[in-house]
């Protein structure tokens, strides 16, 4: 360990899940974690703030670990590693995503669907995350961060980016096809850049004027309100907003055999709708987590393009404030906590 024994680290710890307006995260000093044999210890530089963090902090996701430190888009430098670590050397800058660890032996892990692992651990939910100065993660589940991204800009790629990428992959689009994106936050603003890179036409529905402006800046062919119909029928649509009412609205503008991908971990109830909206082989599917391959493939594409992330930076101590802003659609692009000095 390169840390001085007895040194404490700053961390945001979830006390009792409750509305963010009531400041559920306590800015505290705790002993830094120690890496196990297969884990690396990172000095955190940046941690993205994701809507899932909001679901954890407010309790929409059932609490799995008491006093959890949230944050699953963590960029940091390896400062120590366990005795079995061989892949990354000390000093390497890596990212820790939501998928913290899988069992490797369940029926999903052995079928190439590790994102659905029965015993998966999740960063910032079942294992402590990156709203802290230090974090540990299994070496096999961290990604090397491409050189050209600053840590702040890389953080939103690790969840919003990867999930946006997996959502796009599952939407079965071809070059020249038309994609609708509903909700234009952190994931949407990355997904549109990959879609444009692949020659896909993008229509964006979102209620916030500044999100509409960002969508336009990033190459959306049309932007409108959350329930406005795009001018052309869609080959696929991705809903990033956690609003179930959008499902029938998006199905109504989807072509035959089109795919509707639901990109969130949590969504309000989906209202009942006529079978006509689904008939003609339309498909509705969710996206759950990602495989390590998705992450590796995405970071490679992200570096090629290269993806430009729009970030709004908050200090670690202002995590409650960042989550409040996210809750009320007050973030242009992605919110990121800056941790330590870089
Ligand atoms: Zn498994
Ligand atoms: Zn996330």
Describe the structure.
This protein is an alpha/beta fold and 342 residues long. 21% of the residues lie in helices and 26% in strands. The protein contains 8 helices and 17 strands. It has helices at residues 51-58, 151-154, 160-169, 186-197, 209-217, 246-251, 292-304, 319-327; strands spanning 9-14, 25-30, 39-49, 74-81, 93-96, 99-101, 121-122, 134-138, 143-144, 178-182, 201-205, 222-224, 234-239, 254-262, 283-286, 311-315, 334-338. Strands 3, 4, 5, 8, 9, 16 and 17 form a 7-stranded mixed beta sheet that branches. It has a 6-stranded parallel beta sheet with strand order 12-11-10-13-14-15. Helix 3 crosses helix 4 and helix 3 crosses helix 7 (292-304). The longest helix is centred in the C-terminal third of the chain and has 13 residues, at 292-304. The relative contact order is 0.17. Bound molecules: zinc ion (2 copies).
Structure keywords:
alpha/beta; globular
SSE diagram, text form:
Blueprint (H helix, E strand, L loop, with lengths): L8 E6 L10 E6 L8 E11 L1 H8 L15 E8 L11 E4 L2 E3 L19 E2 L11 E5 L4 E2 L6 H4 L5 H10 L8 E5 L3 H12 L3 E5 L3 H9 L4 E3 L9 E6 L6 H6 L2 E9 L20 E4 L5 H13 L6 E5 L3 H9 L6 E5 L4
Parallel strand pairs: 10-11, 10-13, 11-12, 13-14, 14-15, 16-17
Antiparallel strand pairs: 1-2, 3-4, 3-8, 3-17, 4-5, 5-9, 6-7
Helix pairs in contact: 3-4, 3-7
The protein binds zinc ion (2 copies).
């Amino acid at each position: 360990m390169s840390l001085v024994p007895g040194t404490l680290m700053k961390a945001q710890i979830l006390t009792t899940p409750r509305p963010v307006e009531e400041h559920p995260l306590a800015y505290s000093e705790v002993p830094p974690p120690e890496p196990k044999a297969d884990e690396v210890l990172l000095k955190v530089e940046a941690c993205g703030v994701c809507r899932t963090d909001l679901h954890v902090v407010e309790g929409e996701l059932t609490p799995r670990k008491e006093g959890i430190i949230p944050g699953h888009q963590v960029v940091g430098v390896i400062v120590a590693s366990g005795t079995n670590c061989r892949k990354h050397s000390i000093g390497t800058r890596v990212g820790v995503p939501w998928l913290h660890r899988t069992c490797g032996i369940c029926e999903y892990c052995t079928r190439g669907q590790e994102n659905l692992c029965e015993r998966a651990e999740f960063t910032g939910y079942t294992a402590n995350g990156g709203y802290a100065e230090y974090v540990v993660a299994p070496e096999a589940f961290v990604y090397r961060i491409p050189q050209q991204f600053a840590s702040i800009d890389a953080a939103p790629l690790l969840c919003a980016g990867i999930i946006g990428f997996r959502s796009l992959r599952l939407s079965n689009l071809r070059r020249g096809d038309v994609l609708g994106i509903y909700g234009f936050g952190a994931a949407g603003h990355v997904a549109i850049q990959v879609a444009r890179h692949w020659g896909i036409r993008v229509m964006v529905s979102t209620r916030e004027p500044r999100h509409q402006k960002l969508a336009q800046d990033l190459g959306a062919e049309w932007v409108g309100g959350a329930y406005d119909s795009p001018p052309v029928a869609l080959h696929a649509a991705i809903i990033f907003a956690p609003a179930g009412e959008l499902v029938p609205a998006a199905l109504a503008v989807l072509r035959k055999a089109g795919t509707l991908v639901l990109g969130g971990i949590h969504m309000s109830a989906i209202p009942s709708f006529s079978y006509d909206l689904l008939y003609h082989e339309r498909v509705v599917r969710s996206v759950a987590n990602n495989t390590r391959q998705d992450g590796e493939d995405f970071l490679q594409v992200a570096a090629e393009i290269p993806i430009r992330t729009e970030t709004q930076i908050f200090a670690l101590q202002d995590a409650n404030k960042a989550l409040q802003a996210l809750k009320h659609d007050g973030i242009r692009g992605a919110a990121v906590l800056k941790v330590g000095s870089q």
